[in-house]
């Protein structure tokens, strides 16, 4: 028996990221424009970094509150009051070591060996992989695509439910499609979950990256305090803090001790000086978020315009998030194409194969970058499309 064969089957089966495989292929290429990862090109603003640096200088380097310092949980309550019009107590928030960590904790609290968890696909691959590592069985339900864009058929979700189903994972606005659920769809999903006694993990990380009027619709708009919903989120996207690895869970206060225990037995908490930066992000960062969203809107329109002119790119203009998920006429192997685009266009994209069922024919482009780079990248892609 080899060393690897002595590991848990779930660990051995954890898939290599189809996104990272392309990144590793092209990471060191000179002049490459990297649009493969889900992050912008701006560094963390100084008002956030300075707050963290002050905490570090003040000696906030010891063990701290497992569930997050009170100042941060209070700042989260203020953030939700401003953006969602809801009043929450600090006891309803748990600080986690990233949005990914928040998702892992939520899965650990609800689903385990043999349980089924439903998610909407194409999807950010980490949820399904994390569920699999936990021993659960991820069950994809594909979003529908038509000339009117992406949509969610709630009846397809209902058809996928079995006696072993424990939860629904709903990411809206969606990575990678940009699909954004309307209030009626959220209500229908919540009604279905309530009827079946299921939990919902609501990943609303892109709520403020919405190109309609104001933020995207949220389960908070339709839920009651006793509904079985865990909201997972992260500081990564709104405040240009992807490398900080700080996130949170919004949950019922009755569950706080359970999640505090799960924090204790995973990371034992987020560094206090980093949490000081997160407080500054929440309390002082609304203007920065608004600027980022408008910057992303202009970037989206620029890229969509250039690729549309090729006559070969097929896509729905995304309603939310900051990704363009597109097909190319004549393209049959998106994974191979992503590597070819690195080699011959010097642009980094993520292959749709990385996002599961329904994504196989697509490529994902993150347009959350400065306009001159995006314009150059789009023209390189347009030139490459002529060779397909």
UniProtKB/TrEMBL annotation:
Its cofactor is pyridoxal 5'-phosphate. The keyword Transferase applies. Its EC number is 2.6.1.-. Keywords: Aminotransferase, Pyridoxal phosphate, Transferase. It catalyses: L-aspartate + 2-oxoglutarate = oxaloacetate + L-glutamate. One of its GO terms (molecular function) is transaminase activity. Residues 37-381 form the Aminotransferase class I/classII large domain. It is an enzyme of class 2 (transferase). InterPro entries: Aminotransferase_I/II_large, AspAT/PAT-like, NHTrfase_class1_PyrdxlP-BS, PyrdxlP-dep_Trfase, PyrdxlP-dep_Trfase_major, PyrdxlP-dep_Trfase_small. PANTHER family: ASPARTATE AMINOTRANSFERASE (PTHR46383). NCBIfam families: PRK06108.1 (NF004770). Belongs to the class-I pyridoxal-phosphate-dependent aminotransferase family. This is Aminotransferase. It comes from Mesorhizobium vachelliae. The lineage of its organism: Bacteria, Pseudomonadati, Pseudomonadota, Alphaproteobacteria, Hyphomicrobiales.
């Amino acid at each position: 028996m080899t060393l690897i064969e002595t590991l848990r089957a779930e660990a051995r089966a954890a898939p290599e990221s189809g996104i990272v495989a392309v990144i590793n292929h092209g990471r060191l290429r000179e002049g490459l424009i990297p649009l493969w990862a889900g992050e912008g090109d701006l560094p963390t603003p100084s008002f956030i970094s300075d707050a963290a640096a002050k905490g570090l200088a003040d000696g906030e380097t010891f063990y701290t509150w497992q569930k997050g310092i009170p100042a941060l949980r209070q700042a989260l309550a203020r953030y939700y009051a401003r953006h969602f019009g809801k009043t929450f107590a600090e006891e309803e928030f748990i600080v986690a070591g990233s949005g990914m960590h928040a998702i892992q904790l939520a899965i650990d609290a609800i689903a385990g060996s043999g349980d089924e968890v439903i998610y909407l696909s194409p999807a950010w691959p980490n949820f399904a992989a994390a569920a699999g590592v936990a021993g659960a069985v991820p069950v994809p339900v594909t979003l529908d695509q038509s000339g009117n864009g992406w949509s969610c058929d709630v009846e397809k979700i209902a058809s996928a439910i079995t006696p072993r189903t424990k939860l629904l994972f709903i990411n809206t606005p969606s990575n990678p499609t940009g699909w954004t659920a309307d209030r009626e769809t959220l209500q229908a999903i919540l009604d279905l979950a309530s009827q079946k006694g299921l939990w919902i993990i609501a990943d609303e990380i892109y709520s403020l990256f919405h190109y309609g009027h104001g933020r995207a619709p949220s389960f908070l708009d339709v839920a009651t305090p006793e509904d079985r919903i865990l909201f997972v989120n992260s500081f990564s996207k709104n405040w240009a803090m992807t490398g900080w690895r700080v996130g949170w869970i919004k949950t019922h206060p009755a569950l706080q001790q359970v999640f505090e225990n799960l924090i204790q037995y995973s990371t034992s908490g987020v560094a206090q000086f980093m949490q000081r930066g997160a407080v500054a992000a929440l309390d002082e960062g609304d203007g920065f978020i608004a600027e980022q969203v408008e910057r992303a809107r202009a970037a989206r329109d620029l890229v969509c315009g250039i690729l549309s002119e090729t006559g070969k790119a097929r896509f729905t203009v995304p309603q939310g998030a900051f990704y363009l998920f597109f097909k190319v006429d004549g393209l049959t192997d998106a994974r191979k194409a992503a590597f070819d685009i690195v080699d011959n266009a010097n642009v980094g994209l993520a292959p749709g194969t990385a996002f599961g069922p329904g994504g196989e024919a697509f490529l994902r482009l993150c347009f959350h970058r400065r306009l001159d780079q995006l314009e150059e990248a789009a023209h390189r892609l347009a030139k490459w499309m002529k060779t397909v």
